[in-house]
Amino acid sequence: MAGPLASRQKPERQFAPGQAHTCVFSESPPKLIVSPASSSLGQKPELKDLILMADSKPLLSLDGDPAAAEALLQDVFGIVVDEVIRKGTSASEKVCEWKEPEELKQLLDLELRSEGESQEQILERCRAVIRYSVKTCHPRFFNQLFSGLDPHALAGRIVTESLNTSQYTYEIAPVFVLMEEEVLKKLRALVGWSSGDGVFCPGGSISNMYAMNLARYQRYPDCKQRGLRALPPLALFTSKECHYSIKKGAAFLGLGTDSVRIVQADERGKMIPEDLEQQIRLAEAEGAVPFLVSATSGTTVLGAFDPLEAIADVCQRHGLWLHVDAAWGGSVLLSQTHRHLLDGIQRADSVAWNPHKLLSVGLQCSALLLRDTSNLLKRCHGSQASYLFQQDKFYDVTLDTGDKVVQCGRRVDCLKLWLMWKAQGGQGLERRVDQAFALARYLAEELKKREGFELVMEPEFVNVCFWFVPPSLRGKKGSPDYNERLAKVAPILKESMVKKGSMMIGYQPHGTRGNFFRMVVANPALTRVDMDFLLNELEQLGQDL
């Protein structure tokens, strides 16, 4: 086969199966020479052979042909622009091309083999991966709390991946150490803090876990060295509408899921401060030590915002750390019109905020913000690794932020947000948030006009939750099996839309409510046309149910 991958040298002679041999490079360009080993299989190569290998030219990709490497990347970028950006954001294309797992395995040919493949085959692999992947940037992808594609953020992601550095020391990531702090400073200012600390984390779940660990360390610093034996039974408090990462974090940190005390929520999904007070007193009466309250700004399903001022009052009375999980709703702080939903957030000790959700920055971009100015992050997590965080460096070593985090290697997550913000400005991002609210309201009003659609509740955020009632169930709400039959509708319609490739919407049960759709209005490219399509498509898919 022609091309650079077909030009590999073959051994000059063959050996019997099992006969040991060594391979070295010589000449310029390098030529592979294979000779029988002077001893049995498994013995280390001779020193002279290793030296010859070290003296050879660098083993670059594509046989050291930089022109071929550049051509490959140009071809891949071309495929990405055409298949992901152009087609993947077009309403006339499918959101997904569904295949059953066994068929998909065969189509992708996932097996990893000893021999490499040609450039043409590699490009075809890229096309296949894109073809059978869900297009989350598509205007009809409503399935998750993230969607859409911002070109400036994508440019930042491409630059980030190309530079391939780790965000732990100034010496290897000078631009990004300074950039991360500037971005975090801006996010803190939106929360209402003039100072503080923070770090980008690998997702909102980890941000929440960091907050729990910091709150525990602040109260019991000995636990860093002595572990759980330094702790009394602890209790943390969160709403029944909280993200599941709170219980996962409690388990991961050794607190145990029993340490998570569930606070009741009202009919709209908001934490009830009076029940929080009661749960704190109950925990104390049972011998536990309360240490943290995790409130939520933008719950996953209903999009509810907990009453932060009242919750902060409770935390202040009891001396508890207040964490606000604003992974979903944090971006509302950019909107002068809607930021009142987070009134009181400035009183929190920590905030989790995921710009990769409502702002469409791209996965992943999750910030943990702290009001603390005592270097709590580093005191809690630092281990002073001498090979990395030398204190006698030639620059200000406080710029080496890597000891603040649990990770060693840490990807750069600030560039995509910074570049998008530079392009859009705060005003442009505010318009995005306001537009999402406006479209969610438009959808809710259109739902009310159509037979067969029923809102679960009036939306407060950009989560629009509703049932589609098919023709066979209309007018039968009082029948004994109505709720059971209605709960089966969303899964059936979800299968139909996915296999057709027309759109994707999430559904779930919630408390005593049977399955309903949760429409997420987050993609900045959405218009009223997309809202109308959603309703029309559900009517078409469900007309025979």
Uncertain residue segments: 1-40
Oligomer: single chain
- What is the tally of helical segments? 17
- Note the beta-strand portion: 5-15%
Total strands: 14
The side-by-side strand order for the widest beta sheet comes to 4-10-9-8-7-5-6
Backbone CA Rg: 28 Å
Mean pLDDT: 92
Q: In terms of structural class, how would the helical and strand content be classed?
A: alpha/beta
- Percent of residues in helices: 25-40%
Instruction: Give the CA-CA distance, first to last residue.
Output: 55 Å
For the biggest sheet, the summary is: 7 strands, mixed
C-alpha geometry: globular
What does this protein structure show overall?
- There is one protein chain.
- β11 (453-455) and β12 (463-468) form a beta hairpin.
- The chain has helices at residues 47-55, 61-64, 66-86, 101-108, 119-131, 151-163, 174-191, 204-219, 223-226, 245-252, 273-285, 308-318, 376-381, 415-449, 482-487, 489-500, 528-541; strands at residues 21-26, 31-36, 141-142, 197-201, 234-239, 260-263, 289-296, 321-326, 350-353, 366-370, 453-455, 463-468, 504-510, 513-520.
- The chain is of the alpha/beta class and 545 residues long.
- Helices cover 39% and strands 14% of the residues.
- The longest helix has 35 residues, at 415-449.
- The chain has a 7-stranded mixed sheet with strand order 4-10-9-8-7-5-6, with helices on both faces. Strands 3-13-14-12-11 form a 5-stranded mixed sheet. A two-stranded antiparallel sheet has the order 1-2.
- The protein is built from 17 helices and 14 strands.
- It is globular and about 85 Å long.
